[in-house]
């Protein structure tokens, strides 16, 4: 039995979530944990959208993991609804504890409960360990992703 609790994030979780987002080489260059205003604005939009689920994992009352699920209805694949997993982070103290596996499995269960027929995610190409992790969980690298920054 797991001692992690998975739940919808609340406003008081923002600081812990942002700290985890910033706690890696990529996040350290793009996150600003000392400026929570933009994160609070984003949280309000996410929380108000029924197609979004910003989740946290707790252990002993402390936020130790996070991820965002977006539910995307579509016309392709006979009107399939997919779940998109983004922003997965596990607190540095919990890496290797099995939390990543439990959090991902929880996300897949959430997708099933919402009627999704597909779960997909993206991972920065430099996160080779993350790629191996997702492949161990049954995910396949089937697409090539592109981004266009808008200034």
Automatic annotation (TrEMBL):
Domain (N-acetyltransferase): residue spans on this chain: 4-151
UniProt KW keywords: Acyltransferase, Transferase
GO molecular function: acyltransferase activity, transferring groups other than amino-acyl groups
Highest classification ranks of the organism: Bacteria, Bacillati, Actinomycetota, Actinomycetes, Kitasatosporales
Keyword Cell membrane listed: no
Source taxon at top rank: Bacteria
UniProt source species: Streptomyces tardus
Protein name from the UniProt record: GNAT family N-acetyltransferase
Pfam families: Acetyltransf_1
Protein's UniProt keywords contain Endoplasmic reticulum: no
């Amino acid at each position: 039995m797991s001692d992690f609790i998975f739940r919808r994030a609340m406003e008081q979780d923002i600081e812990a979530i942002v700290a985890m987002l910033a706690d890696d080489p990529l996040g350290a260059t793009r996150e600003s944990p000392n400026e929570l205003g933009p994160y609070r604005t984003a949280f309000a939009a996410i929380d108000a959208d029924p197609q979004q689920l910003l989740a946290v994992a707790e252990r002993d009352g402390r936020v130790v993991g996070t991820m965002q699920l977006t539910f995307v209805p579509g016309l392709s694949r006979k009107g399939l609804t997919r779940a998109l997993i983004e922003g997965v982070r596990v607190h540095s103290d919990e890496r290797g504890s099995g939390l990543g596996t439990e959090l991902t499995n929880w996300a897949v269960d959430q997708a099933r409960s919402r009627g999704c027929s597909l779960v997909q995610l993206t991972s920065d190409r430099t996160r080779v360990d993350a790629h191996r992790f997702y492949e161990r969980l049954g995910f396949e690298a089937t697409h090539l992703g592109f981004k266009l920054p808008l200034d």
